[in-house]
Amino acid sequence: xxxxxxxxxxxxxxxxxxxxxxxxxxxxxxxxxxxxxxxxxxxxxxxxxxxxxxxxxxxxxxxxxxxxxxxxxxxxxxxxxxxxxxxxxxxxxxxxxxxxxxxxxxxxxxxxxxxxxxxxxxxxxxxxxxxxxxxxxxxxxxxxxxxxxxxxxxxxxxxxxxxxxxxxxxxxxxxxxxxxxxxxxxxxxxxxxxxxxxxxxxxxxxxxxxxxxxxxxxxxxxxxxxxxxxxxxxxxxxxxxxxxxxxxxxxxxxxxxxxxxxxxxxxxxxxxxxxxxxxxxxxxxxxxxxxxxxxxxxxxxxxxxxxxxxxxxxxxxxxxxxxxxxxxxxxxxxxxxxxxxxxxxxxxxxxxxxxxxxxxxxxxxxxxxxx
Length: 371
What we know:
By secondary structure, the protein is α+β, with helices and mostly antiparallel strands. The chain has two domains: about 5-115, PAS domain (Beta-Lactamase), CATH 3.30.450.20; about 210-370, Histidine kinase-like ATPase, C-terminal domain (Heat Shock Protein 90). The protein has helices at about 5-15, 35-40, 55-60, 65-75, 115-170, 180-205, 220-235, 255-275, 325-330; strands spanning about 20-25, 30-35, 80-90, 90-100, 105-115, 215, 240, 250-255, 280-285, 290-300, 335-340, 345-355. The strands form three sheets. Strands 2-1-5-4-3 form a five-stranded antiparallel sheet, sandwiched between helices. The longest helix has about 55 residues, at about 115-170. The model is unreliable at about 360-370 (pLDDT under 50).
């Protein structure tokens, strides 16, 4: 049933007052209606001839928007939400376009101007690039230190282990108390093994071998990490609230193996720091620009002063949390991880990863594709 003339006027007044641009086309691409916001965004005169089509109105100045409308009306594409660039004079606007096609072929469009939000996001990207470059310089310095430490420490470790094993064999045939000698020599071996483990960890942290980035769906990776932390939470008797993402797909550029290990490290180490019976929460959120993860847990043993060192590769907090290696992987993916205190006993970790390809990092990419 068609609305009467009075209802059409009232509806037109309402639509003219909203900030989103509203356009309506019939199945033959003829423009049936546009409000003032749409007229301003597209520089289309508010007074128009109803016989005018989408091609005449939009193709010259905004071919991308015309192409979207044409494909939807032709049935080559469905409705939904897309983002496109609109040209208004010498200026480019970023628009989010919501499309709804009726059974009779009528197409409704709502245009949302997200230019300011987009430029704020681009500025944030620039700041992140600078931060990542500073981080890269810091990591190079730490790598040199780590290589030096590994070289200088490994030889004494081998010597301690070798002499300790030799003395253990000799003490069995000596006249000294073998049990006492064995006890102290076992301490030496244990320390040698511990030092060897430290060296291995330093070498792992300083590994700058090239990551292999491909565009993949991160949702299965997150769900797998969440399953692992739920199992750990059950084993440690935690009050755990870990909710799988509702989204079925969210693709980003990543080295799947490294990123999975980093996310699982963040989750399991934080769960290990949470005392038995403590509360543990992990949740995710997704925007067109980035994926974010928030982890909150009881951590009374981690002091306020410890938080500043939680990402230091040569420091372990009172709660046993060290996320230096995980942070390195996340930053290599163009993301960030931050730690903060909530109240006197709770800790919050916030992890973000961009949908774009490593934010165009200056150190180059080995995966080809659009950024």
